[in-house]
Amino acid sequence: MSRLVVVSNRVAVPDPTGKGAAGGLAVALREAFEAYQGIWFGWSGKVAAQPSTQPKIVNRERVQYALMDLTSLDRQEYYNGFANRALWPIMHYRIGLSEFSRADYAGYLRVNRSFANALAQMVQPDDLVWVHDYHLIPLAAELRALGITNRIGYFHHIPWPAPEVLGTLPGSRELLRAITDYNLIGVQTERDADNLRRCLVQELGAVHRKGDVVELGNHQTRVKGFPIGIDVRGFEQAALRSSSHRLVRQTTAGLGSRRLIIGVDRLDYSKGIPERMESFERFLVGNPDQRGQVTYLQITPTSRSEVPEYATLSREVNETLGRINGSLGEPGWVPIHYVNSTYPRSVLAGLHRLSRVGLVTPMRDGMNLVAKEYVAAQNPDDPGVLVLSKFAGAAEQLTDALLVNPNDKFEVAEAIRDALYMGRDERIARWTRMMGTIRQTDVSWWASTFLKDLAGGKNAGRPRIQVGV
Ligand code: GDG
Fold this sequence. Notes:
Distance between the termini: 25 Å
Number of helices: 16
Bound molecules: GDP-alpha-D-glucose
CATH superfamily of the largest domain: Glycogen Phosphorylase B
CATH class of the largest domain: Alpha Beta
Strand order of the largest sheet: 3-4-2-1-5-6-7-10-9-8
CATH topology of the largest domain: Rossmann fold
Number of strands: 16
Structural class: alpha/beta
Largest sheet: 10 strands, mixed
Strand content: 15-25%
């Protein structure tokens, strides 16, 4: 039977007690690892002065976790540098924020090569290899150079930009050449798939055959949309149970008759947090009767704090927040509550359920799982309304949200108003359709669809994953 080898920048090793929050990818892969025996390979998150060239192995249930340490230079160049300061902004269409350095790029290639060297020794001929995200684009090319001929798939969690944008990144052509060493490339949306295929055609002279197939010289790859989903049932149940949670009860009591508007995002400039706060300000200025009637809660765990652009963003958010609360707040009413803490998923689910409006207005986003989580958490008899950026991948599926351009503060302010005034029948109708979609394309559907496609016609050891519909 073939095994599943997952590779991602960070590896989520479950703690031995089985408690502790499972991250998004861990939830996504849980069922896949039930169907296959597997290995999950990647960075341990630790820095060592002289890391071993062999991974540290931790066995938990059916999965072998293979963990590599990095040097602090690796972390700086590969992770903070090329991945998060050069690639991330370009992939999110922020050319002006992208800081390219040759040393960082060399570090990125070096870590991919050392991961490939260690991984090549573990891979068996029948294994399916599934690589995740922009940190590891060159991994397949490095594995091929070591003689690995297995089927290797790649999933890109963030947007893939148009050729005109990607082309501004030095080294982008080399990355494009490397990505064609995957047998199957999954992206979040049809727009991303189209962009990547156009990059391959325009930059490398590849030929786009029918459907997903792209041909470069004598080899083919496939580029296809696989919109990632969430654990719908898990989130739904967490939301149902959440009313007993102390934080949810306190929030309910603190609200009184006010209505809650919620935003949940990592502190990242792609998420449009200051822009969203200003849209809410616009809403309050345009609808003075709503002052004191609504509270906007923005939950924002900090992230990537070693990257300078994120420190700048943090200052910008705090200034915007202070200005709005200072100018529009009143004794007894603070318009925007902003918290940097990380909450358990059960609390998040409960807060989503309490909120009449979910504000998900990224400037650009691969998918945006929060949009789907907000929908899954609603009370079917009295659901809230999702206001969603048309630049989030989720907008391709959730067309019953109020879709907005996050750059247009008047438009977002109007959508907030429409959401607050929307009648129950319309809310139920929109929610029912969105919930149908996210149920059909939940996270186990996503993983099993990708893996079946990657396994292709290989029936021996074919995955026994159920399509989670
Ligand atoms: C990347 C892509 C793509 C947030 N705060 C807390 C918390 N979260 C959870 C959310 C959600 C997850 O983090 C964030 O996922 P997103 O999809 O919204 O965004 P990214 O982190 O940027 O993820 C994105 C995704 O990969 C998957 O492919 O959709 O486009 O950028 O699940 O709920 N979780 C907990 N406490 C918090 O305070 N427990």
